[in-house]
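Risk register update: the risk that structure generation would not scale has been downgraded. Supporting records follow, first protein first.
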Amino acid sequence: MTWEGWTQIAIFAAVVAALVKPLGFYIERVLAGEGTWVQRRLGPIEGAVYRLAGVDPAREQAWPAYATSLLVFNLAGILLLYAILRLQARLPLNPEALPAVAPDLALNTAISFATNTSWQAYGGETTLSYLSQMAGIAVQSFLSCAVGIAVAITLVRGFARCSVPTIGNFWVDITRITLYILLPVSIPVALFLAWQGVPQTFAAHATVTTLDGATQILARGPVASQDVIKLLSGDGGGFFNANSAHPFENPNAVTGIVEMLLIFLVGAALTNTFGRMVRDERQGWVLFAAMAALFTIGLATLYGAESAGNPAFAGLGVDQVAGAAQSGGNLEGKEVRFGVGQSSLFAAVTTASSDGAVNAMHDSFTPLGGLALLANMMLDEVIVGGPGSGLFGMLLFALVAVFIAGLMVGRTPEYLGKKITANEVKMTMLALLSVPAAILGGAAVASVVPAGLAGLGNAGPHGFSEILYAFTSAAATNGSAFAGLSVNTPFYNLGLALAMFIGRFMVVVPVLCIAGTLAAKRSVPASAGTLPTTGAQFAGLLVGVIVIVGGLTFLPALVLGPVAEHVALIAGSRY
């Protein structure tokens, strides 16, 4: 560990904490329909969208209608993106004359980006045309992010409203989120990235002559505009195969910090939006504190493991100590312009947020570093998570926490003035168990069938970790990968697509159901038996519940993968 690394971490944490409140306030005003300077200027566009779509913005929906609209909208997005990928060779803006994407890969990619996962079983610059990147990938990045935020807001409305049968209007929510939150951030930041050297062009790939006379092709395209939304939306899909490790997507350490801020800001700020909407900002700060505690634990484990270096090198006389000539630690798979410090921070941010963008190759991290990345994703997207999904994931665990506390004192659990009954508990369990079922079930099948084992690039515990990481990343809607596993096969394309579908829609539909039942309930005044949910005690209870549930669910699988690999690595370094 170095002081430069800790300085970057401190700057990042300070900026996130400073922006949570003002951005949370802005998001709350946007979704409440209150006038902001952006709405006053773009309001006519919002009205035109409603008129063209035949939407009455004053008419709200009950949760079944809201869920139906969401599912139909996402199905249309999947079909549209699939069609673009399959017809790519016949469509314009394809200067490299790339062929159509294979059916199984096209389906995997369409589901991936429509579910805000951004799992990529392809190299972007060699597989997708400019039109596919823009009209397909970038558009779904905007819309899938808007859907996640909308679902979170409906759950917050469920707590904030009393005896109301509706939870909002899906079409109004996604329009306002896209128009007033995502676009106003994306445009100026895309210009900043272009200023820093990220390409933004429709020109074909450039052919250059190197200093030694060889010919090299430099891929380029409309990168800056897609780069910003892949980070802001929690989608994470890279224009290039190397993602944010590529100098054309992430030119320097400054853009690296900006990219990490984009990944975290909306998810973190939504905790403040939650507090404002339920009329008690302390509730939001408790959730933010729980997220910060879990993130700190994961980052400390990851940075410590990567800074310690590779134990296998200890007996070879390889110097891994940080000094004036090197940053030290495990530099395998990392960009030297970022070093271990920013690479560890970026990896922690991207797995804690379910974004999936990477500036280092996660497959080359130490076993304990890889364990930290897996653990971040396995906690059901609650460590900030994707925009929206982190908030509703944390609120689901809050319901579990108050339910457990209620059992201990023999009292019907309450949260924010709402009685938590059997229906909410059942829907919460369905949402929280769907992701582990997809992860463990998919990894189990892939670990024993020939089609799953055929993709392994490594045997033993690390090979199992690669499979486990793939299904964890897919079901947790993350999208990053241990790249040693070859996944562009019908088995993995279809299997991971199913995991992504379950990880998204088997969670959001129960959340909408919970939102509807809570909104219809009357508010119950706090009493002497009500569990306080605005202090450190509840934050600790919440963190404890998340860690215990995650440990009981995934510890056996982690022991077979990264833990076993770490033990073998330590044992091997002694001989």
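Supporting record for the second protein:
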Amino acid sequence: MPFLLLVVMIMSATLAGAAGLPGPAVPDGLGVNIHFTGAPARDLDLLQAGGFRFIRMDFPWAGVEKEKGKYDFAPYDALTAGLEQRGMRALYILDYGNPLYEAGNSVQTEAGRQAFARFAAAAAEHFRGRGIVWELWNEPNIKPFWTPEPDVNQYMALAKVVFPAIRAADPQAICIGPGTSGLPREFLGECFRQGLLDLVDAVSVHPYRNQPPETAARDILALRALIGRYAPARADVPIISGEWGYSSVWDKYDPARQGRYLSREFLTNLSLGIPLSIWYDWHDDGPDPKESEHHFGTVTLDYQPKPAYLAMQELVRNLGGLRFVRRLQSAAEDYLLLFSDGRRHVLATWTLLGGSHETEAVPGMRLTLTETVAYLPLDPLPKAIAAQAAWSARARWQGVRLGAAPGEPLSPEIAVQVRNPFPQAAPVMVRIKPGPGLQGALQGPARFVLRPEASRTLVWRGRVSARAREDLSVAVEVEFAGIRSRQVVPLLLFNPVHLQARRTRGGALEASIDNPDGDALQAALVARAGDRTLDCRVTMGTARGRVTMGDQDLPVRVEANRLTVTLPLRARGGDKVWLALREGGRTIAADHFRAVPVPGLDVPPASCRQVEGDRPERAAFSFSRLPDSWAMAYDCPPGWALAVAPLPRPVPLTGSPREIGAWVKGDGTDVYLCLRYTDAAGRTFEPLLGRIDFSGWRYLSARLDDPTNDLVAGPPGPLRVAFPVTIDAIVLSDSNKAAAKGRLEIAGWEAVYRE
């Protein structure tokens, strides 16, 4: 058996995860959302011809059980049969309320939960043995999909009844959930804490974004860390990308960009080990050229193929039957993904940079990369690529814990596996280079010789130091048969206690301590601003907390598991501020910053030069100067509205500030406040300062160093912001489509440097 074929087979068994989920061969795990039942030949034939092998479709309770105890599966019988005839499978979403049992669009009563469980069990038994993937709910973390308000406890109460009922009806059933909108850490973490990982075969999420698909890698890494935190023994539970797409009429989008992103979304997910990815949507849903919801489809309203459909066909035509092997060493902005079945090898390549450029990431092979995926057959497989494909490095779990000793759960542990594909013995040298905040040792010899087809696995065990930052990484270098290559294994510091500090409007120092687990905490808080220092004691538990300095209690606010304290220590603009939280002589959380006032932003804009929305001519905006702040008044009619107010003069920021913040007096009208800035590469970003769902003064801030901020102008660039940056405009968005009339005050702009 050829070596690479053996490697691919081993990897397939790993990535397939739970029994019944598709393996990693293209396009077995690639699918699309639909909005029909029955067996319409035109839709199903086009789906098959496009290369899709899965569909995702609502299986609503109220549509199936219209009389108590009677279930009408006929529309889904026809759909399932039509799919099977074309070699396709279904992911059905068990979702939504039923007026026979529940008043709203959720399940909140015990009687309703039992009735829903009977419905789910009946469906599982009816379709037993037909490879259906059963998902419990669609986006239960947001309205209107769970009403009157999303409630993780209600969702988990339902899950604990429904999943066992499905498995009792069909022990081989494939169960996934919770199908969240985005990757909400608190909602998912609470699901895991309450036992969801013991109930499902995979965790499903919807990684929507207005940024390139590759930015999802960081979010998937964080989700894997969260899974490992709550279930270290099951840290490899598969993750499903259950719904994710791009509208071809979003701002700065068009059908061509949507098509590029379909290929890159699917390829990125395959490279992340995601066994099932569902694109949203199959078919454009309406004719309105300005309504983004109408244009997520891969085909138009009259079934004409869009670039997304053609991109799917090209992906399957080039990679059909192949499996992802590895991402080859390259610049961070370049992607070279190797796919193989052990006999046929194809390289999928693209770049995040605009235009095109050449690279020689593979010695002796010059490649021209663009934003559009290109497929390069490799026959025969070059030795330099075969040597890279001969080894892999994998973290046992992506999330690690501060202070965990080597061998403890959630301590850093990386396995390096090498197998010799060549017909002669080959020398191997392994180097491990932990990044800042990490230390450890390789368990085994770093130099050895491998006979043909022999393999060896080495393990590096590490420890996280007290000065570690949240993002960690370990570089693994392997010199194999004289060819050196490198792989960076990312890790996340999963410290349950986080500390953040800022100046109050009056200049005092305010510290917020997040303790999401709610565990008892007794620690020392040390703060320093300029040449002034203070020490105090912090005591925290679930929804309670106390801070004392000597025998004096300091004023605190406690919200859920967050404690905020105002310290009797003033921080002047430009002061270097340092805070640390110490428990048992060990630093468990720290923050340091320097906040520099930005006086140029104290001048209010004169007018809104760009007003968009359903009725832009009826939206009114005005600005006024106040003694120590400025105000923005607005009056927006029903429908969405967006106002961009350029500053009188653009405001450059020196250096590389991580954040920009200001004090905002809210009015509770639920609008969104953003700003726009342009980086040194000429790209304009629009980060969110905050949602104005509050009244009174509150500090709002936005990250400036985050390349996943909305890109509103300029070409997509590398996954980093090019400093210095210039602040250009203030943006107000009313996206809830209700009328909005109110007034905001803004004061105390400052650039925050966390050096």
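The chain has four domains: 26-320, 390-493, 498-597, 599-753. On this basis the risk owner (M.S.) recommends closing the item.
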